[in-house]
Design goal:
Layout: H1 9-14, H2 46-58, H3 64-72, H4 76-88, H5 106-146
Length: about 160
């Protein structure tokens, strides 16, 4: 038996099941290996959601809903949420919703601005009250030292 150092032609192409570097086995262009920096969320229109819900309602045999969810790329929780929204009659809820903090309505914005202004005024008045109470305490101590009687005021304190 003679031993040969030559490989068979099929072994040259595959090198024992692996594709050698530089040898392309596919005839088409290779897919782009780059992954996008930020994944984009899938959004479904109300029509798409209703179509999927109707298809789920038609599923009668074991495993059909699972197959539908795999085909559409959904989770069962999404289907359950959409069913609840449909039962509640909130078809507006079936439309894709913008994520994040909601922009305040003009009336709400005016109320928020008024609230901030009142809070600033309240803080200013608290500082003035603390200053006035300090002055009153100093006047009381000065009148005690000098022996000047103070007239008692008839008012109830909240404290």
């Amino acid at each position: 038996m003679s031993y040969s150092n030559k490989k068979h032609t099929s072994e040259v192409e595959t090198e024992g099941g692996r594709r050698p570097t530089g040898v392309s086995t596919s005839t088409g262009a290779a897919p782009d290996p780059e992954v996008s920096a930020k994944a984009k969320r899938r959004t479904f229109s109300a029509e798409q959601k209703l179509r999927i819900l109707e298809a789920a309602d038609l599923c009668t045999e074991y495993g059909q809903i699972g197959a539908l969810l795999r085909r559409e790329g959904l989770f069962s929780s999404q289907l359950a949420t959409w069913r609840d929204e449909r039962l509640k009659g909130t078809f507006a809820g079936l439309a894709p919703q913008k994520r994040g903090r909601k922009a305040p309505e003009p009336a709400t914005k005016a109320l928020l601005e008024e609230k901030k202004q009142l809070q600033r005024e309240n803080e200013r008045l608290k500082k003035r009250l603390a200053y006035a109470e300090l002055i009153i305490d100093i006047q009381k101590k000065a009148s005690e030292i000098l022996g000047i009687p103070l007239k008692s005021l008839d008012f109830e304190e909240d404290e």
